[in-house]
Amino acid sequence: MVYFLIFILLTGGFFAVTSQLLGLPPASTSRGIRIAAHKQFSPMHFVNAYFIAPFVKILAPIVRMTDFKEKRMELQLARAGIPLTPKEYVARSYLMAGSALVLSVFLLSVTMRNMLPLAAVLAAVVYFHFNGEVSDRLKEKDRLIESELPKFVRAIVQGLKTEKDVIKLLETYQTIAGEGLKYDIEVLIMDLKSGNYEAAMLAFDKRVGNAYISRLTKALIAVSRGDNQDSTLNYLISDMGLLAKETMQRELNKRPGRVKMLIIPIVLLAVITLFYVIGMHLFRSLGGIM
Protein backbone atom coordinates (compact mmCIF):
# COMPACT_ATOMS: atom_id res chain seq x y z
CA MET A 1 0.00 0.00 0.00
CA VAL A 2 2.83 2.39 0.88
CA TYR A 3 4.63 1.66 -2.40
CA PHE A 4 1.39 2.29 -4.32
CA LEU A 5 0.97 5.71 -2.66
CA ILE A 6 4.61 6.58 -3.41
CA PHE A 7 4.06 5.58 -7.04
CA ILE A 8 0.94 7.80 -7.30
CA LEU A 9 2.72 10.79 -5.76
CA LEU A 10 5.78 10.40 -8.00
CA THR A 11 3.56 10.05 -11.09
CA GLY A 12 1.65 13.21 -10.17
CA GLY A 13 4.89 15.10 -9.54
CA PHE A 14 6.44 14.01 -12.85
CA PHE A 15 3.23 14.98 -14.66
CA ALA A 16 3.19 18.45 -13.07
CA VAL A 17 6.87 19.08 -13.88
CA THR A 18 6.44 17.83 -17.46
CA SER A 19 3.35 20.04 -17.95
CA GLN A 20 5.31 23.09 -16.82
CA LEU A 21 8.25 22.27 -19.09
CA LEU A 22 6.02 21.67 -22.12
CA GLY A 23 3.76 24.65 -21.38
CA LEU A 24 0.60 22.54 -21.17
CA PRO A 25 -2.51 24.29 -19.79
CA PRO A 26 -3.65 23.33 -16.28
CA ALA A 27 -6.56 20.98 -15.74
CA SER A 28 -8.86 23.86 -14.75
CA THR A 29 -8.24 25.58 -18.08
CA SER A 30 -8.97 22.39 -20.01
CA ARG A 31 -12.14 21.85 -18.00
CA GLY A 32 -13.21 25.46 -18.67
CA ILE A 33 -12.66 24.99 -22.41
CA ARG A 34 -14.75 21.81 -22.36
CA ILE A 35 -17.56 23.58 -20.50
CA ALA A 36 -17.45 26.53 -22.89
CA ALA A 37 -17.50 24.20 -25.89
CA HIS A 38 -20.44 22.32 -24.41
CA LYS A 39 -22.36 25.57 -23.89
CA GLN A 40 -21.52 26.78 -27.37
CA PHE A 41 -22.83 23.59 -28.97
CA SER A 42 -25.86 23.17 -26.74
CA PRO A 43 -29.14 21.92 -28.25
CA MET A 44 -30.61 25.44 -28.20
CA HIS A 45 -27.55 26.80 -29.99
CA PHE A 46 -27.88 24.06 -32.59
CA VAL A 47 -31.60 24.77 -33.16
CA ASN A 48 -30.99 28.50 -33.38
CA ALA A 49 -28.02 28.17 -35.75
CA TYR A 50 -29.50 25.63 -38.17
CA PHE A 51 -33.28 26.08 -37.98
CA ILE A 52 -34.09 29.63 -36.82
CA ALA A 53 -31.21 31.85 -38.00
CA PRO A 54 -31.42 30.86 -41.73
CA PHE A 55 -35.14 31.73 -41.91
CA VAL A 56 -34.54 34.95 -39.96
CA LYS A 57 -31.92 35.97 -42.55
CA ILE A 58 -34.45 35.33 -45.32
CA LEU A 59 -37.28 37.27 -43.65
CA ALA A 60 -35.18 40.23 -42.43
CA PRO A 61 -35.03 42.09 -45.80
CA ILE A 62 -38.84 41.97 -46.01
CA VAL A 63 -39.28 43.84 -42.70
CA ARG A 64 -39.98 47.56 -43.13
CA MET A 65 -38.77 50.03 -40.50
CA THR A 66 -38.19 53.76 -40.41
CA ASP A 67 -34.58 54.91 -40.18
CA PHE A 68 -35.16 56.51 -36.79
CA LYS A 69 -36.74 53.38 -35.30
CA GLU A 70 -34.02 51.17 -36.79
CA LYS A 71 -31.20 53.29 -35.36
CA ARG A 72 -32.86 53.47 -31.96
CA MET A 73 -33.43 49.71 -31.87
CA GLU A 74 -29.86 49.11 -33.00
CA LEU A 75 -28.59 50.97 -29.94
CA GLN A 76 -31.01 49.08 -27.70
CA LEU A 77 -29.96 45.69 -29.08
CA ALA A 78 -26.28 46.56 -28.64
CA ARG A 79 -26.87 47.61 -25.01
CA ALA A 80 -28.95 44.50 -24.33
CA GLY A 81 -26.27 42.23 -25.81
CA ILE A 82 -28.55 40.69 -28.46
CA PRO A 83 -26.45 39.82 -31.57
CA LEU A 84 -29.15 40.68 -34.12
CA THR A 85 -29.87 43.60 -36.41
CA PRO A 86 -33.18 45.45 -35.82
CA LYS A 87 -34.79 43.82 -38.86
CA GLU A 88 -33.56 40.37 -37.84
CA TYR A 89 -34.93 40.94 -34.34
CA VAL A 90 -38.40 41.82 -35.66
CA ALA A 91 -38.24 39.00 -38.23
CA ARG A 92 -37.44 36.52 -35.46
CA SER A 93 -40.54 37.64 -33.53
CA TYR A 94 -42.73 37.13 -36.62
CA LEU A 95 -41.11 33.78 -37.37
CA MET A 96 -41.56 32.38 -33.87
CA ALA A 97 -45.16 33.64 -33.66
CA GLY A 98 -45.96 32.17 -37.07
CA SER A 99 -44.36 28.85 -36.16
CA ALA A 100 -46.33 28.72 -32.92
CA LEU A 101 -49.55 29.49 -34.84
CA VAL A 102 -49.00 26.78 -37.46
CA LEU A 103 -47.94 24.15 -34.94
CA SER A 104 -50.77 24.87 -32.51
CA VAL A 105 -53.38 24.91 -35.33
CA PHE A 106 -52.13 21.52 -36.49
CA LEU A 107 -52.18 19.99 -33.00
CA LEU A 108 -55.58 21.47 -32.07
CA SER A 109 -57.16 20.42 -35.38
CA VAL A 110 -56.11 16.84 -34.66
CA THR A 111 -57.19 16.81 -31.02
CA MET A 112 -59.67 19.63 -30.15
CA ARG A 113 -61.09 21.52 -33.12
CA ASN A 114 -63.34 23.68 -30.96
CA MET A 115 -60.24 25.15 -29.25
CA LEU A 116 -58.66 26.48 -32.47
CA PRO A 117 -58.99 30.18 -31.39
CA LEU A 118 -56.40 29.43 -28.71
CA ALA A 119 -53.82 29.12 -31.50
CA ALA A 120 -54.09 32.85 -32.21
CA VAL A 121 -53.76 33.63 -28.51
CA LEU A 122 -50.66 31.45 -28.25
CA ALA A 123 -49.14 33.09 -31.33
CA ALA A 124 -49.73 36.55 -29.83
CA VAL A 125 -48.13 35.50 -26.54
CA VAL A 126 -45.07 34.12 -28.36
CA TYR A 127 -44.76 37.29 -30.47
CA PHE A 128 -44.87 39.64 -27.47
CA HIS A 129 -42.44 37.40 -25.59
CA PHE A 130 -39.76 37.61 -28.28
CA ASN A 131 -40.54 41.20 -29.23
CA GLY A 132 -40.23 42.30 -25.61
CA GLU A 133 -36.92 40.54 -24.95
CA VAL A 134 -34.88 43.68 -25.55
CA SER A 135 -36.98 45.78 -23.15
CA ASP A 136 -36.80 43.06 -20.48
CA ARG A 137 -33.02 42.87 -20.79
CA LEU A 138 -32.70 46.66 -20.67
CA LYS A 139 -34.85 46.83 -17.53
CA GLU A 140 -32.59 44.27 -15.90
CA LYS A 141 -29.54 46.20 -17.07
CA ASP A 142 -30.93 49.46 -15.67
CA ARG A 143 -31.38 47.69 -12.34
CA LEU A 144 -27.76 46.52 -12.47
CA ILE A 145 -26.60 50.02 -13.43
CA GLU A 146 -28.45 51.57 -10.50
CA SER A 147 -26.89 49.10 -8.08
CA GLU A 148 -23.41 49.74 -9.53
CA LEU A 149 -23.67 53.54 -9.74
CA PRO A 150 -22.41 54.33 -6.21
CA LYS A 151 -19.23 52.32 -6.76
CA PHE A 152 -18.65 53.81 -10.23
CA VAL A 153 -19.25 57.45 -9.25
CA ARG A 154 -17.10 57.18 -6.14
CA ALA A 155 -14.26 55.61 -8.12
CA ILE A 156 -14.29 58.40 -10.72
CA VAL A 157 -14.77 61.32 -8.30
CA GLN A 158 -12.18 60.07 -5.80
CA GLY A 159 -9.80 59.26 -8.65
CA LEU A 160 -10.02 62.82 -9.99
CA LYS A 161 -8.32 64.05 -6.85
CA THR A 162 -5.06 62.36 -7.86
CA GLU A 163 -5.47 61.61 -11.57
CA LYS A 164 -6.83 64.12 -14.08
CA ASP A 165 -6.80 61.73 -17.04
CA VAL A 166 -10.38 60.47 -17.24
CA ILE A 167 -9.46 57.76 -19.76
CA LYS A 168 -7.00 56.21 -17.31
CA LEU A 169 -9.60 56.33 -14.55
CA LEU A 170 -12.15 54.61 -16.79
CA GLU A 171 -9.63 51.97 -17.90
CA THR A 172 -8.80 51.27 -14.25
CA TYR A 173 -12.46 50.95 -13.33
CA GLN A 174 -13.13 48.80 -16.41
CA THR A 175 -11.19 45.95 -14.80
CA ILE A 176 -13.73 45.76 -11.95
CA ALA A 177 -16.84 46.95 -13.81
CA GLY A 178 -20.04 44.96 -13.39
CA GLU A 179 -22.38 43.75 -16.09
CA GLY A 180 -24.48 46.90 -15.85
CA LEU A 181 -21.87 49.44 -17.01
CA LYS A 182 -19.20 47.25 -18.61
CA TYR A 183 -20.39 47.67 -22.22
CA ASP A 184 -21.11 51.41 -21.91
CA ILE A 185 -17.71 52.10 -20.34
CA GLU A 186 -15.95 50.17 -23.11
CA VAL A 187 -17.75 52.25 -25.75
CA LEU A 188 -17.01 55.47 -23.84
CA ILE A 189 -13.29 54.69 -23.69
CA MET A 190 -13.19 54.01 -27.43
CA ASP A 191 -15.11 57.23 -28.15
CA LEU A 192 -12.81 59.27 -25.92
CA LYS A 193 -9.73 57.89 -27.64
CA SER A 194 -11.03 58.36 -31.17
CA GLY A 195 -13.34 61.36 -31.02
CA ASN A 196 -14.33 64.57 -29.30
CA TYR A 197 -14.35 64.53 -25.48
CA GLU A 198 -17.66 66.34 -25.03
CA ALA A 199 -19.39 64.37 -27.78
CA ALA A 200 -18.22 61.09 -26.22
CA MET A 201 -19.49 62.12 -22.79
CA LEU A 202 -22.86 63.26 -24.16
CA ALA A 203 -23.20 60.00 -26.11
CA PHE A 204 -22.43 58.06 -22.91
CA ASP A 205 -25.07 60.05 -21.04
CA LYS A 206 -27.66 59.43 -23.76
CA ARG A 207 -26.79 55.73 -23.99
CA VAL A 208 -27.11 55.04 -20.26
CA GLY A 209 -30.08 57.35 -19.70
CA ASN A 210 -29.60 57.86 -15.97
CA ALA A 211 -29.99 61.16 -14.08
CA TYR A 212 -26.91 60.57 -11.90
CA ILE A 213 -24.79 59.69 -14.94
CA SER A 214 -26.06 62.88 -16.59
CA ARG A 215 -24.87 64.94 -13.61
CA LEU A 216 -21.50 63.19 -13.64
CA THR A 217 -20.92 63.67 -17.37
CA LYS A 218 -21.84 67.36 -17.20
CA ALA A 219 -19.44 67.82 -14.30
CA LEU A 220 -16.64 66.01 -16.17
CA ILE A 221 -17.22 68.16 -19.25
CA ALA A 222 -17.01 71.29 -17.08
CA VAL A 223 -13.80 69.99 -15.45
CA SER A 224 -12.29 69.44 -18.92
CA ARG A 225 -13.01 73.13 -19.67
CA GLY A 226 -11.17 74.18 -16.51
CA ASP A 227 -14.18 74.90 -14.28
CA ASN A 228 -14.19 74.05 -10.58
CA GLN A 229 -16.75 71.31 -9.94
CA ASP A 230 -15.73 70.25 -6.43
CA SER A 231 -19.07 71.18 -4.83
CA THR A 232 -21.07 69.45 -7.59
CA LEU A 233 -19.02 66.28 -7.30
CA ASN A 234 -19.23 66.31 -3.49
CA TYR A 235 -23.03 66.59 -3.66
CA LEU A 236 -23.03 63.73 -6.13
CA ILE A 237 -20.96 61.58 -3.75
CA SER A 238 -23.45 62.38 -0.97
CA ASP A 239 -26.36 61.36 -3.22
CA MET A 240 -24.58 58.11 -4.02
CA GLY A 241 -24.56 57.28 -0.32
CA LEU A 242 -28.34 57.80 -0.20
CA LEU A 243 -28.80 55.76 -3.39
CA ALA A 244 -26.78 52.89 -1.95
CA LYS A 245 -28.97 52.90 1.18
CA GLU A 246 -32.17 52.97 -0.90
CA THR A 247 -30.95 50.08 -3.04
CA MET A 248 -30.06 48.06 0.04
CA GLN A 249 -33.44 48.85 1.61
CA ARG A 250 -35.28 47.66 -1.51
CA GLU A 251 -33.36 44.40 -1.42
CA LEU A 252 -34.17 43.98 2.26
CA ASN A 253 -37.86 44.67 1.60
CA LYS A 254 -37.93 41.74 -0.83
CA ARG A 255 -36.71 39.30 1.79
CA PRO A 256 -39.71 39.25 4.18
CA GLY A 257 -41.77 37.61 1.43
CA ARG A 258 -39.20 34.87 1.08
CA VAL A 259 -38.97 34.50 4.86
CA LYS A 260 -42.77 34.17 5.07
CA MET A 261 -42.71 31.35 2.54
CA LEU A 262 -40.16 29.54 4.72
CA ILE A 263 -42.17 30.22 7.89
CA ILE A 264 -45.36 28.58 6.53
CA PRO A 265 -44.13 24.94 6.84
CA ILE A 266 -42.62 25.73 10.24
CA VAL A 267 -45.94 27.12 11.50
CA LEU A 268 -47.83 24.13 10.08
CA LEU A 269 -45.45 21.75 11.78
CA ALA A 270 -45.83 23.63 15.08
CA VAL A 271 -49.64 23.54 14.82
CA ILE A 272 -49.63 19.82 14.04
CA THR A 273 -47.32 19.16 16.98
CA LEU A 274 -49.50 21.26 19.28
CA PHE A 275 -52.69 19.43 18.28
CA TYR A 276 -50.89 16.10 18.65
CA VAL A 277 -49.80 16.93 22.20
CA ILE A 278 -53.28 18.21 23.15
CA GLY A 279 -54.96 15.19 21.54
CA MET A 280 -52.71 12.72 23.35
CA HIS A 281 -53.32 14.50 26.65
CA LEU A 282 -57.11 14.45 26.14
CA PHE A 283 -57.00 10.79 25.09
CA ARG A 284 -55.09 9.84 28.24
CA SER A 285 -57.42 11.92 30.40
CA LEU A 286 -60.52 10.31 28.88
CA GLY A 287 -58.89 6.89 29.25
CA GLY A 288 -58.35 7.52 32.95
CA ILE A 289 -62.00 8.62 33.44
CA MET A 290 -63.31 5.63 31.51
UniProtKB/TrEMBL annotation:
The entry's keywords: Membrane, Transmembrane, Transmembrane helix
Transmembrane segments: 47-68, 89-109, 115-134, 262-283
Protein name per its UniProtKB record: Type II secretion system protein GspF domain-containing protein
Organism, scientific name: Ructibacterium gallinarum
